[in-house]
Amino acid sequence: MSAVNKPVNQKAWFLILPVILCVAFSAIVPLMTVVNYSVQDIISPERRVFVGTEWFVAVMRDSELHSALLRQLLFSLAVLAVELPLGVLLALSMPAQGWKSSAVLVVVALSLLIPWNVVGTIWQIYGREDIGLLGHTLHQLGINYSYTGNATDAWLTVLVMDVWHWTPLVALLGFAGLRSIPDAYYQAARIDGASKLAVFRYIQLPKMRGVLMIAVLLRFMDSFMIYTEPFVLTGGGPGNATTFLSQYLTQKAVGQFDLGPAAAFSLIYFLIILLLCFILYNWMQSVGTQNPEETGHA
């Protein structure tokens, strides 16, 4: 009874107080500012008019926004469709231990260390016909390639650039998941005479499900907010071929200085990301529940 009535020491909350203050100033305060702008017409720094939900209605009816959203969804789905299996394949082919494993890990992670604007500059040079290896090689093969003049070439170049930059992240997460599998699982599979495909299906893939879920969520959120690389590479062109949602938002806020519509759109953008990630996470959870680990069938 004395243990039940023992007072609880609440002083530990003071330890997280700095974190709460940092989050308040770095996230909550800017968010409230955006909410404030989204319901006002900013005529000048001194003059503002309350417009309610007018900007939200205008943004939702914007046909350019609909096109940018569709373009963004297709790009994010294409990124997942390519990077996920490619990253898993790369993780499976990496050495498990020894100096070779360390060397391969360093080499694979190199592209992750390159800043986003530098990645765009690298591929901008790489795709040029006069000095770029990719552009010059395709030109010599008789392929008419131009990421600055052809919408399909520009979109595919941005996709390949993102795959080159971020597939190692999926590979490293998959490698970590593979290294967490006890050797006893593989020993039992060898005793049962399981094939490599059966080992992958019933042992490796179920054990990697957790890290792959993290990889899917990270890559989806990051690709859905992509900005720097396509901006440096193509500037959103040709036309609007590579103008994704983040660039469309920047054009609204900075290029046209429509702070009210831009604030309303940023809130809608934020809610879209939350909703899609929530749907994706629950779908992956349901798939994991319907297909539990069945290592005994290897």
Task: Tell me what the structure shows.
It is a single chain. The protein is mostly helical. The chain has helices at 17-38, 54-60, 63-93, 99-109, 116-126, 133-140, 151-179, 183-192, 196-224, 228-233, 245-255, 259-290, and strands at residues 40-44, 47-50. A two-stranded antiparallel ribbon has the order 1-2. Helix 1 (17-38) crosses helix 12. The longest helix is centred in the last third of the chain and has 32 residues, at 259-290. Mean pLDDT is 85; it is low at 293-298. It comes from Curvibacter cyanobacteriorum.
Defining key terms:
298 residues, two-stranded antiparallel sheet, single chain, 12 helices, MetI-like fold, disordered C terminus, globular, mainly alpha, 69% helix, 2 strands
In short:
With 298 residues, the protein is mainly alpha-helical. Helix content is 69%, strand content 3%.
Q: Which spans have pLDDT < 50 for at least 5 consecutive residues?
A: 293-298
Structural class: mainly alpha
Percent range of helical residues: 55-70%
Number of strands: 2
What quaternary form is this?
single chain
**Going across the major beta sheet, what is the strand order?**
1-2
Distance between the termini: 52 Å
Helix run count: 12
Domain module tally: 1
Query: Globular, elongated, flat, extended or rod-shaped: what is the shape?
Result: globular
**Annotated CATH architecture:** Orthogonal Bundle
CATH superfamily: MetI-like
CATH fold node name: MetI-like fold
β-strand amount:
under 5%
Q: How large is the radius of gyration?
A: 24 Å
Family: Belongs to the binding-protein-dependent transport system permease family.
Main location: membrane
Protein name: Sugar ABC transporter permease
InterPro entries: MetI-like, MetI-like_sf, Sugar_ABC_transporter
